[in-house]
Amino acid sequence: MGIVEAILLTVITAATPLVLASIGELVTERAGVLNLGVEGMMVMGAAIAFAATQMTGSPYIGILAGIAGGGLFSLLFGFLTLTLVANQVATGLALTILGLGISGQIGEPYVGMSGTKLQPIVVPLLSDIPFLGPLLFKQDIIFYVSIALVIGVNWFLFKSRAGLKIRAIGDNHGSAHALGIHVIRTRYLAVMFGGACAGLAGAQLSLVYTPQWVENMSAGRGWIALALVVFASWRPWRVLAGGYLFGAVSISQLHAQAFGIGIPSQFLSALPYIATVVVLILISHNRRMTQINTPACLGKPFVPDR
Amino acid sequence: MLAVRSLTKLFGSFAACNGIDLDIKSGEIHALLGENGAGKSTLVKMLFGVLAPTSGQILWKGESVRIPSPGAARRIGIGMVFQHFSLFEALTVAENIALSLSPGISLSKVAEEASRLSHLYGLPLDPNAHVADLSVGERQRIEIVRALLQNPELIILDEPTSVLTPQEADRLFETLAKLKAEGRSVLYISHRLEEVQRICDRATVLRHGKVTGACDPRKETPASLARMMVGSDVASVSAAGTNTKGDVLLEAKHLTVPSRTPFAVALKNVCLKVRSGEVLAIAGVAGNGQGELFDALSGEYPVADPAAVSIRGKAAGNLGITARRLMGAGFVPEERHGHAAVTTLPLSDNLVLARSQSDRKTFLAGGLLGIIRQAVVRIASTRISEAMDVRKSGENPAAGSLSGGNLQKYIVGRELDRQPAVLIVNQPTWGVDAGAASRIRQALVDLAKSGSAVLVISQDLDEIFEVATEIAVISEGRLSDAYPAHDLTREKIGLLMGGMYGKTEGEVAHAH
C-alpha cells in the first residue's frame, strides 16, 4: 500500500463521522428544528457503543447501542423543545453539556482499556479494482452506511412524499398544520433520526477512528457537523463534499506538520476550518438557491392554536 | 347543504363566535360579511377543522358532523382558500398541491392534473415554478386549484380579493360563477360591500361574534349593509380641500435601489413630488415595491445618492431615519407589532423610542445622560390617546394589549402630535375596523390641510379615493406619473397596476 493510499484511508476515516452527524442534523433542520446538541449526542453514542462492545464483545451490538443511545438522548431534546416548547438553542446547548457529563460517567470504567476495532467488510470483485478497490470496498460497515445515508436522504427529501412533508414543515409549520400534516410527530421523528445519526457517528469514533474510550473524544466534531449543514445550504451532496474536504485538509495539515514545513502550526491547525468555510461559501454564492433551501421555520417554536 | 346551529368558540372568557346560526344551500354563493374581529375567520376555521368549537353543532347535508381536522373537512367535501396563504414558498407549485392530496399520487400526475384544471377554470399556472417567484394573484390561483383538485362541494374563500387587481378579481368572479353553475356552493368572506352585492346570492352579517342579519345583498344598499356590519353609521371622511399648492416638501429623484434579498423588489427610477397641502397616494398590488419604497423614503435603508430623496428641499438620501425625523418628517411603517411598536412595552415607552431625538429637549433630562422624564412623556401619551380616541385598558398599557385599530390610531397619533411637515404612511388602515379607519384617514387629510405633505402607500382603493389629492401607481418597483385623484377611475388604476400582468392577460385571451 502506497503512502497516498494510506493518507486517503485516514481521510475517509476522519470524514465519515462528520458526514454522518451532518446528514442527521440536516434532516432535523429541514424539519425546522435546530438541535445544537449534536456534540453531546455524538459523545454519548461513542461512550455507549464502546461500553456495549466491551460488555458483549461484538462491535456490531456496540454500533446498534450507539445508534439507540443517540436516538434516545435526542428524545429528551424533542420532549423539551417540541412538547414543552422550550427554547431550542438553550436546550441544545444544555444537551451538549449533559452529554459530555453523562458519557464521562458511562465511560469511566473503560478509560485506558484497548477496544475492539471494527473489522472491514471486503466486497468481492470490486475490492480488486486497483487503487480505488482497497479504498472504497475494504471498509467497515459504518463507512458504507454513511454513503448510503447521503444517497438515501437525498432521495427521501426530494423525491418521496414523506420528505416533501418534512420540507413543508420546515418552510411553514403553520400552513403544514392547516393542511393536516402532523407537525410535532414528524419533528420528533426528524429529531430522533438526527440523534441516531449522531450516535452512529460517535460509535465510529470509539470503534474505528481510535478504538478506545477517551473522555470528550468527540473533540468538537459535533460543532463542525452543525456548521457543515449550514454552509452546505441544507443539501445532502454538499454535506458529503464538505465533510470530505474538512477531513482531507485536517489530515494533510497533520502530515505537513510532521514533515516540518516552515508554517506556524497554529495556522495549519486552523486550515481545515478556513478551507471548508471558503469552499462552501464559494459554492453557495447563488443567494436565491440558498434562500430556497434554508428552512424558514428553523428554530421557531410551534404551538398549534386549538 | 351546510347548516350551523348555535356555534360558539371561546378564547378564555372572550367569545370570538357566540351562538352562530348559518345555512348554506347547494349551488349558491353565500357571503359572510363583517368587520375585522367580527369572528368571520374564527367561524370558517371551525368549519374547516382548524379550530375546535367550544359548543354548538355543524350539520353537513342534514347530519351532525364533527370536523376534527382540515383533512376530515376535505374528506366530507369542504375546500378552503385562506386569506393569508398557506403556501410553502420554498416548494414548487406542484409540490404545494401534492401536499394536500391523498397519498399515492405521483408528483408528475399532480403536475399534469393541476395544469389541466387550472386552464379549465381560466387560472393558468406553471406547475414547476417556485412559489417564491410568483405574484400574489398567481399564489391565490394555486390555492384555488389546490382546493378544486379535491372536488369539493363547498369552497370557502377568505377575503380573496384583498390582494388582487380589479381585473384579477373579475377573473376570479368568472371562476366562481363556473363553480356555482356546476352546483357547488361557495362561502365568500369579505368586507367589500360592492363585491358582495355583485356576486353573492345571500349574505349573513356578523358583528362581535354574533349574527346581526341575514339578507339578500342585492336588495340592500351599501349603507344598510354597512350599518349591519358596524352597528352604527360610519363617519365619512371629508376630502382635502386645499387646491393652492405650496412648496415641494418631499421629493424623490430617480430613486433606484437594487433588491436586498432574492424575494424583494428593486426600485427602478422612482420620481415623485409631494407639495404642502397635498396627499399623494400610491396604489398597487401587494409586493410591488411598496415596502422597499417606504424603506428608502424613511431612511430605514438609506441610499447612496443623497440627492435621490430630499425633505424640505434638503438632500437626505444617505441619511438615517433619525436624521430625517430631525428634518421634520414623520413615518408610520406597515407592521404595527414589532416594527412600529414594541408590543411588550407600555405606550409611553413606545413614544420615547420613536421621538427620543426629535423631542429630546422635552422628553429627556440630564443632558448626555438622557434620563427619561416619565411624567412629561405620560402627559404627551395621554394627549395622543385623547386626540385619536384610543381605547385602552388602563392608563399606560402594553402596546400589544391594544386592539389592532386602537394601536394603529396611537401610532399614527404619535407622529401627528409633532405636526410633521412631511408624513409618510405605509398601509395606514390595514386590518383596522371601519370606525378607526375613518378616524385615521380624517387625521391624515387634516394634516395635509394644515400645510403638511402627506404620502400614503395603500392597497385599498376605497381608502385612496377617500384621502388622496394625487394618485400614482407602483408596479414591479416602477412608479407611474401622479394624476389628480378626480381624473382617475378604478379601471384606470387597475390598468396601471396591471402593467406587470400583461402576459397573463394574453394567455387567458388565448385559452378562451
TrEMBL record, chain A:
It comes from the Bacteria. The keyword Cell membrane applies. InterPro entries: ABC_transp_permease (IPR001851). It is a multi-pass membrane protein. It is found in: Cell membrane. The chain crosses the membrane at residues 31-53, 60-86, 141-158, 188-209, 267-283. Keywords: Cell membrane, Membrane, Transmembrane, Transmembrane helix. The keyword Nucleus does not apply. Pfam families: BPD_transp_2 (PF02653). PANTHER family: ABC TRANSPORTER PERMEASE PROTEIN, SUGAR ABC TRANSPORTER INTEGRAL MEMBRANE PROTEIN-RELATED. This is ABC transporter permease.
